[in-house]
Amino acid sequence: MRKWRLFLPEPTTLFGKLWNSHAVAALPGGGTLLAIDRVFLHERTGASALNSLAEAGRAVADPARVFAVTDHIVDTRPGRTDKTLMPGGQVFITETRAAAKAAGITLFDVNDSDQGIVHVISPELGIVLPGCTLVAPDSHTCTQGAFGALAWGIGSSEAEHAMATGTLRLNKPKSMRVRFSGALAKGVTPKDMIMTLIARHGAAGGKGHAVEFAGQAVQALDMEGRMTLCNMATEFSAMSGFIAPDTKTLAYLEGRRYAPTGENWDRATQNWRQLVSDANAAFDTEIEIDASAIIPMISWGTSPEHSVGISGAVPDNASERPLEYMALKPKQKLAGTPIDAAFIGSCTNSRLSDLRRASALLKGKTIASHVKAICVPGSSRVKREAEAEGIDAIFREAGFEWRESGCSMCFYAGGESFDAGSRVISTTNRNFESRQGPSVKTHIASPETVVASALAGVIADPRTLQDG
Amino acid sequence: MAEPFTTLTSLPMPLIRGNIDTDQIIPSREMKSTGKTGLADGLFAGLRYTAIGGRDPDSGFVLNDPHYADSQIILGGANFGCGSSREHAVWALAEYGFRAVIAPSFAPIFAGNCVRNGILPAVIDADAITVIAKANSPITIDLRAQTIRLDDDQNWSFPIDEEAKAMLLEGLDAIDLSLKMAADIATWQEADRAKRPWIYLGAKQ
Fold it and tell me: What is chain B's alpha carbon radius of gyration, rounded to the nearest angstrom?
C-alpha cells in the first residue's frame, strides 16, 4: 500500500491543474512565470496598452491570440456610428481601431455582427476554452471562468506584459471552494447566489484566493447562469472564479468559431475531462452555502456587500455614509421603496436566457408610468436572437427601450446617464457611488427582480409575479 | 520605468473609508485620452469638486485641505482600490504626487497596478492606521526594512512579496525582466503546442 502511494499523483484542485499546466518557470522570490493563452482588449484601455507597447518598441508576440472589441463607450442607440455620447469618446474607438490594425490583432468593431460586451462575445466565439488562461484589462474577466478557464482582470501594464511576452509574473493565490448545495427555489437566480456569498462573507471575502464554484446548484446552472455567478468573483475580491467544465460546457462550445474542430476537438475534450478537482484535493478555504435557502437579493448600500434578501431591511448597524448616499434609514424595508429607473444589461445579466426570463415576466404587462426602463442586450448576436424570438417587442410594448449591444449605462463615462440623484434598479454588478451617473442610487438585483420592480414602480419581490 | 522607492517621509493624508473604489479614485468621465497622463486633475474628482465635471474645490474634502498639500501617502480603509481594473487610478495618484497607500487590505488588481507604477501598497491593520491618523504627523516608510515609523515607540512592519519589493526598490520594468526569459518561454510553448495545438490559433491546426 505504502509503496504504491509513491506513484499516485497528489490530489490536485482544478485551480492547481490550471496553474501547474501554465507554469513556465519559477521566478526568484517565489513567483511563477505563467503562460497566457488569450488576451482580450476593449476600446477604453486597448489603445492605451497597444500604443504604449509600440512606443516602447515592443511587438505583440502572437497577434493571433489577441482580440479586441468596442463595447465600453460605444453608443447603444439605434443607428450608431463611431460617435459616442461620452465627450471625447470617439478617439478611444478610432485609436483602438488603428492600434489593433497596426498590431495585427482581431478587432470586433462597432457595427461588426460579432460585436458585444467582451465577456459575452468571447464565449460566443469560442475564444475562451476550458483549461486556458485568459486575461483582459477589465475586472469582470472572471466571468469567463464559467468555462473552466483561468480568466482574470489585469491592469494596462500587465496587458502589455502579456502581449509582449505571452506570460505574466504572478504569485500563486490560495485556493477556495464555494459549494452551493441543494437546489435553487423558483424565482431565485445565480445573481442571488453570488450576492448572497458577498453579503455573507464580505466584499473582501475572497481576497488572495482563486475560487472554484461547485456543488449541486452550480452544476444545475446552464452556461449563461454560470457566467453570471463567476462574473462577480471580482466583487468578492477573488483573483478569479471558475467552474469545472462538463457536458454542458462542451455542448456550448462545439462548433463555435475559434473552438477546435475535428481531431483537435477530440484531443481537446479528452484533455478537458481532467479539469476537475480530485477527490480529497485540499483547499485553503472552503465555504458551504445552502442554495435552497437563498431568496432574491437586493443591495441597499454602495458596495455589493451591502445586500439583503428582498423581504429584508437595511441593517440596524449600517454605516452612515452609504445610508446618507442612498437616502435610506436603518431597519427600513427595501421592498416598496419607489424607483425612478430600471436597467437590464451588463456582463452580469444581458445574455439571451436573462432576456428570455425577463420577457416572460413582462409579457402583456406595462411598467409603471414614471419608470424609465432600458434593456441593452449583451451582444449583437444576443440582440438578433432575441429579436428573432420577438423578445424585443415584449420589452418595447411593456415600456422598455431596446438598445444596441454594449456596456452602456452600467457605468457613467460622462455621456449618457440616469437623472442625477435618481434611484435605479439594475442587473449590473456595481452599486458604487455615482457609478451609473452623478448621485445615482443603484440597487443591484437579478433580471427577475428588476422586472418585478419596474412593473410595480417600487422595489418588488419577483416571486409574486406570474409568467405573462 | 518607475522611480525607485526606498524610503519616504511624509505627512499621511487620511481617507479612511472602506471600499474606496477606482471609480472614486478616477471617475470614468475623467479618463479623457488614451494616454497615461493628464489624469491628476481628475483624481478623486467626484469627491474633490463641488459639481460633476466642475473644478471648484469642495473645501470639505481632505485632498483640498492645505494641511495635506504636500502629502505623498494616503491612509485608506479596507478593500482599497476595488472595482474597475483601470490603471488610470494609479496613474492619477502617481501624477498627483502620491507614492504610497497604507490600508488594511487592497483589491488585487489595484495593488498590482501600484507596484508597476512605483507606488507602494502597504498593508497594516486598521487600528494602526487609526493611531497614525490621530497622530497627524509625518511618518517614515522604509521599504527595505518593511517598516512604517511614527516615532521611537510606534512603528509597524508590513508584508510585501519579494518580487514586488525588488521592483519597487529598483524601479524595474517587468517586461524587460520577462523578455530575458524568452528562451524559457519559447521552449515551454514548443512543448505546449504539441500538447494543446488548439490554443495556438495562428498555427495550422
Answer: 20
Arithmetic mean of pLDDT, A220-226: 98
| Residues in chain A within 8 Å Cβ distance of B183 | none
Q: Which residues of chain B have a CB within 8 Å of the CB of A303?
A: 18-19, 79, 82
Residues A259-301 have pLDDT tens digits of 999 999 999 999 999 999 999 999 999 999 999 999 999 999 9
Contact B63, B97 (CB under 8 A): no
The H or E element that residue B156 is part of is: strand B155-157
pLDDT band at B53 (very low <50, low <70, confident <90, very high): confident
Q: Which residues of A touch B79 (CB under 8 A)?
A: 203-204, 207, 237, 303
- Min Cα separation B135/chain A (Å): 24
Q: Which of A105, A110, A155, A106 is nearest to A135 (CA)?
A: A155
CB contact under 8 A, A435 and B182: no
**Are A154 and A136 contacting, i.e. CB atoms less than 8 angstroms apart?**
yes
Task: Give the chain A residue nearest B187 (alpha carbons).
Answer: A24
Q: Would you say B174 and A169 are in contact if contact means Cβ atoms under 8 Å apart?
A: yes
CA A446 to CA A195: how far, in whole Å? 10
Half-sphere exposure of A438 (CA within 13 A, CB side): 16
State pLDDT tens for residues A158-196. 999 999 999 999 999 999 999 999 999 999 999 999 999
Give the cell for residue B49.
469638486
What is the nearest CA distance from A48 to chain B, expressed in angstroms?
5
CA distance A202 to A294: 16
Residue A149 CA to residue A143 CA, distance in Å, equals 10
Helix pair angle (B162-170, B108-116), 10° resolution: 30
Residue (of A47, A34, A39) closest to A63 by Cα position: A39
pLDDT of res. A29? 87
The H-assigned helical ranges of A6-66 are: 14-20, 46-55
Angle between helix A391-398 and A352-362 (nearest 10): 50
| Contacting residues of B for A160, CB less than 8 Å apart | 175
Residues A148, A151, A156, CA angle at the centre, nearest 5°? 170
CA distance linking residue B36 with residue B205, whole number of Å: 39
Percent of chain B with pLDDT strictly greater than 90? 96
d(CA A43, CA A376): 18
Residues of B with Cβ-Cβ distance to A24 under 8 angstroms: 181, 184-185, 188
Assembly ipTM:
0.95
| Mutation target among A18, A20, A158 for the B interface, most CBs of B within 10 A | A158
CA atoms within 13 A on the CB side of A206: 30
Query: A380 near A406, Cβ under 8 Å?
Result: no
Would you say A339 and A453 are in contact if contact means Cβ atoms under 8 Å apart?
Answer: yes
> Residues of B numbered 120-159 whose beta carbons fall under 8 angstroms of chain A's beta carbons: which are they?
none
Q: Which amino acid is at A39?
A: V
Q: Which residue of B has its CA nearest to A47?
A: B34
**Are residues B131 and B81 in contact, defined by beta-carbon separation less than 8 angstroms?**
no
A/B interface, count of CB pairs below 8 Å: 202
The closest CB to that of B163, out of A31, A164, A264, belongs to A31
Among chain B residues, the shortest Cα distance to A257 is held by B201
